[in-house]
Structures are given as structure tokens and as C-alpha cells.
Amino acid sequence: MVRAVRQIAVLGATGSIGSSTLDVVARHPARFRASVLSAHDNVEELVALCLRFRPDIAIIANEAHYAALRDKLADAGLDTRAMAGAQALADVAGSDACDTVVAAIVGAAGLGSTLAAAKAGKRILLANKEAIVVAGALLMQAVAESGAQLLPVDSEHNAIYQCLPCPAGETAIGAAARPGVRRIVLTASGGPFRGWSRTQLEGITPEQACAHPNWRMGRKISVDSATLMNKGLEVIEAHWLFDAAPETIDVVVHPQSIVHSLVDYVDGSTLAQLGNPDMRTALAYGLAWPERIEAGVPALDLAAIGRLDFQPPDESAFPCLRLARQALIAGPAATTVLNAANEVAVSAFLQGRLRFLGIPAVLESTLAQLQERGHGDLAFLLDLDARARRLADELTRSEA
Ligand code: NAD
Ligand code: MG
User: Fold this and answer.
1) Residue 63 maps to which CATH number?
2) In this structure, are 271 and 386 located in the same domain?
3) Does the Cβ of 63 fall within 6 Å of ligand 1?
4) Does the Cβ of 218 fall within 6 Å of ligand 1?
């Protein structure tokens, strides 16, 4: 059988998930081709990737760099077409330039392209968890209507996906994939400050927060892992992906990051997916699904690892998990506000303008002061996102 080469748009190609994706793509030239690459504002890195992968289109999100991208591609002798801006990302994600979109942009900035890919019925490898936290209902509706294949690559959700009963040929998304399931259990590494008290967390620097013990990731998700907000965002993500009620999604701290998550069944069985902490496993799974391919990840050596530990999360030292659960129960407007405030607070922390413990404080105040309860379309959510960012920015200045 001759298999068509999958044409892959790697949105956020210069990031941690982007480079892991391209590593897997490069291992399988007969299966995959990177037809579209994007970056935020690093033209040099994007052009270097274009020289290596020869995509049809390169997109720089920051429009101010359009001319530089166009000229450098031409200077390099490439016929890759230069494009720029958020609208270009969405247009290309929904176009014939790709059949698969790896959503690896960080933050709500990835929402437009992820939604466009969903509406156009693409295979979507979802890393960009903020998109589903901001607009879960819209995204899942677009997937259902278009028949898009949504494959979670966040390691926990990918693990759950692999452990759910899935009818042959269908994707394990939504309630239909959960007969006999009692509970979903997300594992959390606990981040670099696991076991620390609130007092010890007082003077944390961005460098300390970004030094994750098990995973090498972008700076924003590294801070989210350190505050446990990453796990809070993942509870919300699991709710939408698997149509799971909040009380059926649990979190357990597992410092070794070997068990990537678990599913409890009503008969007392628990299924887990294990593996070395390397995102290429989840990305290879999503790229080749329903087949399995080599990802460059060594086999697990449990005897060498020796032991696996589990403990409950400490929600008093790390209140972000509780705040995320409360927002999920309050409704979709609250999770949009939560995400926007978190993006603002994390960015302020990374720039040295907010203390580490100021992050949950800003989230709590933003959620208390902006109690929008409505549901709404994309325009409603984007307006709410903008209002929450303005408020969180003001609160950040008074917290600092
Ligand atoms: P990163 O910071 O390493 O990379 C982010 C990418 O997005 C870069 O290519 C950057 O150029 C681009 N980008 C940044 N801001 C942009 C904007 N405003 N518009 C367009 N493009 C923009 O981040 P990462 O660690 O690769 O994470 C990417 C996403 O995947 C995040 O949503 C994160 O939560 C999720 N994720 C990451 C990991 C991981 O191991 N890194 C694991 C699970 C989920
Ligand atoms: Mg994760």
C-alpha cells in the first residue's frame, strides 16, 4: 500500500514541543513532511529550520518581521513562501497547505489557529492547552461538527487517551469513549518546589522556577509546573477532552514522571501509561495514530528506576490547583479569566515584576473582581480575555 505523506503544520516550531515534533518528523521522511513552520519573532531560528525542512510556507507571528523573513528566505535560496500575523496562522491552519496541525504555540495566542484547524477537519495534535482552557466548548463543538481528529499530546492526556476504551478507528474523545470508567487520575511531578512550605516559596527566582527536575520545557509552562497551575489547566483540559465531570478528575503527585496518568474502571481495574519523560512519545503517537512508530525514546528500565512514589498535592502551599478547580466549576467564563490572569502574572514574574507567591494572589483577585457568568461565542471570549488581562495587569502592579 502506498501511504500519502502527511503534510504537517508545526505551529510554534521554534519551541520545545516544536523541536520535539520536528525530531520525530525527521526520523520518518517517507511518512511525514513539515509543510508549514511558524515562530513568534525569531526570524533566524525560523529560517534555519526552513533550510533543514524546506516547508512550503513559513509564518512569523510578529508582523513587524515579515520583510526580514521574506528577504532571508530569498537570500538562502529557498522558495518557501513568507507570511506573517495571527490571521495568517489561522488561514494556513485551515487550508490545503497541511492535513495535520501540531498546535504548539504557547498561550491563548494559539487559539485562532487551533480553532481554524478544528473547523477545517484537520488532524490536530493539541499541546496548546491554553486554547482548550479558554474556549473548550467552541473547540469541541468545531471538532464534532467537522470530524477533525483531535489527538491530545499533553503527556497526561495522551496517557489517558491511550488508556480509555476506544472503538476501533475512532478517536477516544468525548463521553462515548468512557463506558465503565470511574475516574481519571492525572499525575503531577510536583515541580521543582515539591515539599516546600509557603515561607520557603517567598523568594523564588525565575531561574529556580524554570529548572524543572524531569522535563525541559518553555518558560511559561515551567512556571506553571512550579505553581501547580499547569495541573489546574490540565484538569480543565481533561474535562473538555474526555467530557469528564470535575469530581471524576483527580490529581496525584508522582515525582519520577514515569506514570503519565491513569484511568480507573468501575470493576476496580486501573490502567496506566508509563514511559520515560520525553514528549516525543506522545507526539509520535499523535502523528502516526492509530499506528505506532519509533520516536527516539529508549525503552523504560523499571529495575534501574527502582521505585515509583505517589502522594497527594499540597493545595495550601500551591493554591493554583484549587483556583483552577473552582473556575472549572464556576463555568467557562471563569476559566477564560483564570487563563488570561495567569498568562499576565507569569509573564510579570518572568520579567521580575511580581513575586512567585504574587501569581496565585493575582489570580484570586482577578477571579473575584471579574465574575462574568455568561457563555458565549468567540467574540465574547476574546473580549473577556482582554478585560481579564487589563485587570490582572493592574493587580500585578499593586501586588509587586
Ligand atoms: P515554548 O515557549 O518552548 O515555545 C512556544 C512556541 O510558540 C515558540 O515557537 C514561539 O515562537 C511560539 N509563540 C510564542 N508566542 C507566540 C505568539 N504570541 N504567537 C505565535 N507564536 C508564538 O513553549 P513549549 O514548552 O513548547 O509549549 C508550547 C505549548 O505546549 C504550551 O501551550 C504548553 O503548555 C504545551 N505543552 C508543552 C509541553 C512541553 O514539554 N514543553 C508539554 C505539554 C504541553
Ligand atoms: Mg502535561
Assistant:
1) 3.40.50.720
2) no
3) no
4) yes
Residues 199 and 97 placed together within one structural domain of the fold? no
pLDDT tier at 380 (50, 70, 90 boundaries)? very high
Residues 174 and 286 in one domain: yes
Do 287 and 382 fall into the same domain? no
Residue 215 lies in a domain: yes
Domain interval for residue 344: 331-400
Q: Is residue 326 part of a domain?
A: no
For the stretch 260-275, pLDDT in tens is 999 999 999 999 999 9
Which of 36, 101, 105, when mutated, tests ligand 1's pocket best, judged by the most ligand atoms within 8 Å of its CB? 105
- State the pLDDT confidence band at 57, using cuts at 50, 70 and 90: very high
**Residue 114 lies inside a defined structural domain of this protein:** yes
Residues 58 and 147 in one domain: yes
Determine the distance separating the centroid of ligand 1 and the alpha carbon of 15, expressed in angstroms: 5
Lowest pLDDT segment from 17-31, 127-141, 207-221, 309-323 = 207-221
Q: Is 198 found in the same domain as 306?
A: yes
Question: pTM for this structure?
Answer: 0.97
Averaged pLDDT, 75-104: 98
- pLDDT for residue 214 is more than 90: no
| SS3 per residue for the chain | CCCCCEEEEEECCCCHHHHHHHHHHHHCCCCEEEEEEEECCCHHHHHHHHHHHCCCEEEECCHHHHHHHHHHHHHCCCCCEEEECHHHHHHHHCCCCCCEEEECCCCHHHHHHHHHHHHCCCEEEECCHHHHHHHHHHHHHHHHHHCCEEEECCHHHHHHHHHCCCCCCCCCCCHHHCCCEEEEEEEECCCCCCCCCCCCCCCCCHHHHHCCCCCCCCHHHHHHHHHCHHHHHHHHHHHHHHCCCHHHEEEEECCCCCEEEEEEECCCCEEEEECCCCCHHHHHHHHHCCCCCCCCCCCCCHHHHCCCCCECCCCCCCCHHHHHHHHHHHCHHHHHHHHHHHHHHHHHHHCCCCCCCHHHHHHHHHHHHCCCCCCCCHHHHHHHHHHHHHHHHHHHHHHC
Q: Is the CB of 217 under 6 A from ligand 1?
A: yes
Ligand 1: residue whose CA is nearest its atom 16: 40
Residues with CB under 5 A from ligand 2 (ion): 154-156
